[in-house]
Amino acid sequence: MSALLAAAAVALSGAAVASRASDRGDFRACLGILAGLGLWSSSYVVALFAFGADPRIRIAKDAALAALGIAVLLQPRPGWTARAASQGPTPRWVWPAVGGAVLLATAFFVEHTVRYPDGGWDAWGIWNLRARFLARGGEGFRSAFSADLLFWAHVDYPLLLPGIVAQGFVLAGAEPTWLPAAVAYGFAALAAAVPSAALRGLRGPGWAALAAVAVLATPCFVGFAANQQADVPIGAFLAGTFALSAFAIERGSRRELAVAGFCASLAAWTKNEGLVYLVALGAALLAVRWAPFAQRVRAALRYACGALPVLVLLAWFKLRVAHANDLLSNASLDALLDTSRWAALVGALARRLVFFQNWALWLLAALLMLLFAVVRLPARAAPRVLGAALALSLAATAAVYVVQPHELSWFVRGSFDRVLTQLWPTVVLSLVLRIAAPAEASAAPLGASATASASHSAYITFVS
Amino acid sequence: MTGVPLRTAARVVALLAAIGFAREAWFHLVSEPVCRLGARGPRAEERYTAVRATLPPAGRIGYVSDEPISVRPGAFHADEWGTWLYQGAQYALAPLVLVVGDASTSIVLANVKDPARLEAVAREHGLRIERTFSGGTVAVLRR
Questions:
Q1: CB 3.0 to 4.6 Å from A449: which of A25, A106, A308, B58, for a disulfide?
Q2: Cβ-count burial of A76 within 10 angstroms (0-12 exposed, 13-18 middle, 19+ buried)?
Q3: What pLDDT was estimated at residue A440?
Q4: Are A256 and A24 in contact (CB under 8 A)?
Q5: What is the domain range of residue A349?
Q6: Is A78 exposed, middle or buried (0-12, 13-18, 19+ CB in 10 A)?
């Protein structure tokens, strides 16, 4: 019963958030699941710290979440006009190729999960460890943030993913290894489906299919997903954020930026890097000239307002619960002026670009495609904003790499592919928006969403 | 030119995807042979299943080992075996908090790589072995 209530809380609260998105097709469905999971997890943490671990509190929280979702869904919604994007005939083999990519990625995910049922080192050393503390600890759940735990446990990391897994454990009354694996699979599906579904609305089904294949066929994507770490979940939230921003810019649906801000705040509540990405997109919305200045200020304010509730939770967590961050508490600002450290970083990053084991030729191809687009194709507002945000994110990340206290090449080797994995669905989204001419958009009344091919619908149903 | 034709992009993506999936197939099926999938060893936390029943379910206890543990960022040991052992124990025994190097608690968990060194580890901290588990690699120590 409480599992059903939890599912209703996720579905209804997510649908309420997604109802504010302009796209009425698959993208809204994906966004609903994503936002619902985020709300379900963040409200769990709020309830846990505010009222304790009593199961009745959790049930009341889920009931309240479901009721709030219904209340919002009953409100009149913005009069968005659904648009059917079309870019001419799509090669016939594309959708079967998507189906094949889903099957292969699923097979590799299952193989890796059977081989490593507890996920990668970070999964059991950080994320699932925290979930166990929360699920097993009862009223003593605060020991999850004990100063006696070694820095390897990263007690300052936000709680979105552990919040979902811990509630799953509590609902199941056990800790089956398939549960965090299923959560990881779900987020991987969303990380591929969100940019794909957004592109279906913005550039047409053909480009949507290519984006899905690009994400799924990137060698390290499935591995990191099966490792049950937070990099793929944050990638899904980030893709949702950037997609909503693209809809807002290209369709003029500025109110959508509040949902984008909310989605970005969930990325920040997933992993510390999310805060960097949130600020980067906010700065890009303000700085890139995609609209008159006054409109850009209003857009940035809407974005910030959407982010505010979860950012308040994050700030409280960082100030009152989490201990010092191991990367920044021992950081050296002098390192920022150390040219040898920057040179070492550039060399190490260049290696990742051609690191075949993890990326095959995808990063290289993306870079070449970007260069081609910059030289040969006309500039477009949305990809300019998204591209600037990605560039700012990478620049800020590079600065963190330089000042952090670990040995640089070791740290890059161990973490930069994960940073790129976080950004990869968004990079694919932004790049397609840049290289594909805007689809012929035909205005349609509400409810008449784009006509999807049967196989595309089957794919979205599968990944959802 | 206003954009890359879909057909051209589709051909490029197909080629890149074929290379990407070939690499994945190599890693998942050949590099880590899929025929040995069923032959994996016990989960790391099974090492702590028996000792868990003898420890308090929550609170904090001391933790000692014969292997060095990296306790500060940027100051790592060449061999992270000790860190891996600690993290495995912490994962298995949560919400009990294991305090590295603290031998002042009423119960101390010893987790060693080499069972022959268990006695020396206990003696070094002025503790006695109360009970051993997992072939003498895990032990409950008391003062």
A1: A25
A2: exposed
A3: 60
A4: no
A5: 2-74+96-439
A6: exposed
**Quick check: A251 and A264 in contact, CB under 8 A?**
no
Q: Is residue B1 part of a domain?
A: no
Amino acid in the structure at residue A158: P
Co-location of B51 and B28 in the same domain? no
Of A133, A138, A218, the CB nearest to B20: A218
Instruction: Judge if B114 and B75 occupy the same domain.
Output: yes
Query: How distant is the Cα of B115 from the closest Cα of chain A, in angstroms?
Result: 24
- Please answer yes or no on whether A101 and B88 come within 8 Å at the CB atom: no
Residue A450 domain-assigned? no
Whether chain A has a CB inside 8 Å of the CB on B49: the answer is no
Residue at A445 is within a domain: no
Structurally, how many domains does chain A consist of? 1
Structural domain harbouring B20? 6-39
Separation of alpha carbons B132 and B111, rounded Å: 10
Q: For residue A404, what are its two tokens?
A: 């952090």
Are residues B27 and B90 located together in one domain of the fold? no
Measured between CB atoms, does B16 come within 8 Å of chain A? Answer: yes
Cα–Cα distance, B93 to A118 (Å, whole number): 15
pLDDT digits 0-9 by tens, A346-378: 999 998 889 999 999 999 999 999 999 989 999
Type of residue found at B84: W
pLDDT value of position A81: 56
Which chain A residues contact residue B59 at CB under 8 A? 143
The predicted complex's ipTM stands at 0.93
B103 and B35 both lie in a single domain: no
